[in-house]
Amino acid sequence: MTRSSTERDTPGKVLVVDDEADLRELLSLSLLRMGLDCETAGSVSEARGWLGKPGFALVLTDMNLPDGTGVDVVELASAAGLPVAVITAFGSAETAVAALKAGAFDYVEKPIEFATLKQLIGNVFKPAARREEKGTAREGPRADVPSLQGDSRAIAQVRELIARLARTMAPVAISGPSGSGKELAARSIHAQGGRAGGPFIAVNCGAIPEHLMEAEFFGYRKGAFTGANEDRDGFFQAAHGGTLLLDEVADLPLAMQVKLLRAIQERKVRKVGATVEEAVDVRLISATHKDLAKLVANGAFRQDLYYRLNVIELKMPPLAERAEDIPLLARHLLMRIAERHGSSGVKLLDSAQSALGSLRFPGNVRELENVLERAVALSDGMTIDREAIQLAARGLAPLEEVESSALMEPSRAGEPAALAPQATGAPEPAVEFPLALEAHLDSIARTLLEPALLKTRYNRTQAAELLGLSFRQFRYRLQRLGIK
Fold first, then answer.
1. Which DSSP helix (H) or strand (E) runs through 107?
2. Strand partners, 88
3. What is the pLDDT of residues 1-29, one digit of tens each?
């Protein structure tokens, strides 16, 4: 069952590799129904012969072949620059993961359903069709794709890996400290891939009460429980045809991990109160600042789910490893802050850039943004100088202070070892440190609160937002300081 690709207006042929003649025939007919031409091969050696010829756009291969495995075909197709999907036995999770790690962009389980095959084919050819229709075949990233700012080697490597990950459907596990840009990386993978036209749904797994998790993820039917007054879709249905980001995935309780694993394996979900499952087409990306491997070893995270989510790992570097990016990041973040407040923007003076470069940001890019937000509130609205940064960054340790902490006397962390007094056995005189510290902290708080109130014309809600405080925290500090 072959036809020349020149006879039909298609993007290219599909190569089907399987040792079962009946399955090759079935797939050929299914692909022809979709308007695609195909060639077939019954072994790795036959596939190698076909892949030496031009005109192919996709490879579908079984895992069990007489002279090798599907992984061999994956490697051959990848070397030829072709996307390849693997056909696996039903429930064979290990096989699917091995294929994805070898370079396959997706997999389909036997028995193959036409709808599932159609979704897989669409993920390959639709992006190309959209590019041709819009005339967007050009080099470089699109303007609407979220980008990670910075010129450091660390962030350049992350961008390179994101570009490769965007071409596959393999699950990605993003790790890195809080505030390092894990969600932005996930959005970039989605925006550069074949699912860019579909939805991107981000879910904070740690923010959902355990008793509501199943209903939130899979949806529910009317009357399934008290308060279920109508049918409702869950996160999986909302992300159908697109990407689902499981942020803080380490916070999932074990009971929900079991249900999530089944949904990933079967590619189907069942709403709470429903009797039948429904197919979902979702690419999964997970993110966490915790060590999942350690949680698996401690029994807090299922090993089988870990292997399904962690097919390819993307590590986000902390800001300390890309300190040279701080000036560029600061300018970008200030533009975003200006847009948020409807202003024309604030200029960052060289002295302010120098002050930022001397600080350690344990909260990474998110903390840098918070410092800049406070600095805008403390500035004259036109420029940010060193003093505004120093006031906004109260409590952050300078780089030199952090680096020299290793030289401090362990028992007297605030004093250099050379100046630490020798132990004499006599008790030290009592000093009223707590009272002095409270007065000092109140003084610092006043220097931040009053300018924020002036900046917002005494709008307490906006002033609290500028300082990164809840309204309750802000009100308490006003009362404590007697500011009216």
1. strand 106-109
2. 109
3. 333 333 333 457 899 999 999 889 999 98
44 burial class (0-12, 13-18, 19+ CB within 10 angstroms)? buried
Write the CA distances from 206 to 33, 181, 212, 474, integer angstroms.
Answer: 45, 18, 12, 26
Count of structural domains, the chain? 3
Q: Which residue has the tokens 């995935």?
A: 249
- The domain spanning residue 220 has which CATH number? 3.40.50.300
What's the rounded Cα separation, in Å, for the pair 222 and 227?
9
Which two tokens mark 118? 């159609």
Low-confidence ranges of the chain (pLDDT < 70): 1-11, 90-93, 126-146, 395-440
Whether the bond into 199 is cis, omega within 30 of 0: no
In this structure, the chain runs to a length of 484
Residue range 263-299, pLDDT digits in tens? 998 889 999 999 999 999 899 999 999 999 999 999 9
- pLDDT for residue 416: 38
Please indicate, yes or no, if residue 142 is contained in any of the structural domains.
no
Q: Which of 315, 339, 369 is the last residue of a domain?
A: 315
**Cα(174)–Cα(312) distance, integer angstroms:** 9
d(CA 176, CA 65): 40
Q: Which residue has the tokens 């869950």?
A: 234
SS3 (DSSP) at 387: helix
- Give the pLDDT score at 293: 93
Supply the range of the domain harboring residue 355: 320-409+434-481
- Is the Cβ–Cβ distance between 221 and 272 less than 8 Å? yes
Cα separation values, 431 from 427, 437, 439, Å: 12, 11, 15
Measure Cα distances from 473 to 40, 80, 448, 457, 466 in Å: 68, 59, 14, 19, 13
**Would you state the pLDDT for residue 431?**
41
3-class secondary-structure state, position 392: helix
| Cα 95 to the center of its chain, rounded Å | 25
Structure tokens at 201: 């749904």
CB-based contacts of 351, cutoff 8 Å, min separation 6: 385, 386
